[in-house]
UniProtKB/TrEMBL annotation:
Residues 30-59 are annotated as: NMP. NCBIfam families: adk, PRK00279.1-1, PRK00279.1-2, PRK00279.1-3, PRK14527.1. The gene is adk. It comes from Tissierella pigra. One of its GO terms (biological process) is AMP salvage. This is Adenylate kinase.
Amino acid sequence: MRLILLGPPGVGKGTQASAIVKKYDIPHISTGDIFRANIKEGTELGTKAKEYMDKGLLVPDELVVSIVKDRLTKEDCEKGFLLDGFPRTINQAETLDKELTKMGIKLDKVVNIQASKEILIERAVGRRICKKCGASYHITFNPPKVENICDIDGGELFQRDDDTHETVSTRIEVYENQTQPLIDYYEKKDIILNVDGTKPIDKVYETIVEALTNR
Ligand code: AP5
Ligand code: ZN
């Protein structure tokens, strides 16, 4: 299964991605996670990416594209992959298409999750992440059993630097201007699957899996 998860910030891409990759046993490739790992390790790429991420802006295409190209050539991608948060611009999508053609493979589906701006802000601002394992929670919609402690490994939960009300609003605007055109791009290729992201987490998951099974 070769999938893209498309959707605005906070809509639930990462949450759904974690469950989908488990079900289909495919690698989860999140460009946001790759940048955050680089920031944590203090690499040059991380330092460059942080400048943009903290402002809610997209990291320049040239920094993103080579990372994804490299990742797709790894052995574990032979069984498929799920791209989460990539592509985010028409240029990234066209580059990905060229790369996949070179590799002789095709995308199965682009899962496009949607929700209103109010919901996106509420979800992103209330998100908390485990310092140890990266599991994602929400203070209201998906709280841990013990406040601020990860259910899985007891790790402490933290809030992402770019999850403030102001930066989330910028990220949504950036999404509307630069990423939303991709819906049309993939609709023309007839591989898009539009999913109502306003439903509870397990309902969204069921809808996606059902549609992928009957594709
Ligand atoms: P990235 O990490 O990709 O962030 P994003 O796209 O803004 O998406 P989020 O991670 O904020 O949200 P999500 O949709 O994964 O939601 P989640 O499942 O966590 O990118 C960060 C930055 O990196 C970008 O701003 C950019 O600078 C840079 N970047 C990354 N990729 C790039 C690229 N290709 N090109 C250029 N720059 C790039 O859910 C959110 C919250 O809601 C959680 O708390 C969750 O528990 C809760 N929730 C989820 N689903 C539901 C539901 N159905 N009901 C109730 N609550 C829910
Ligand atoms: Zn954890």
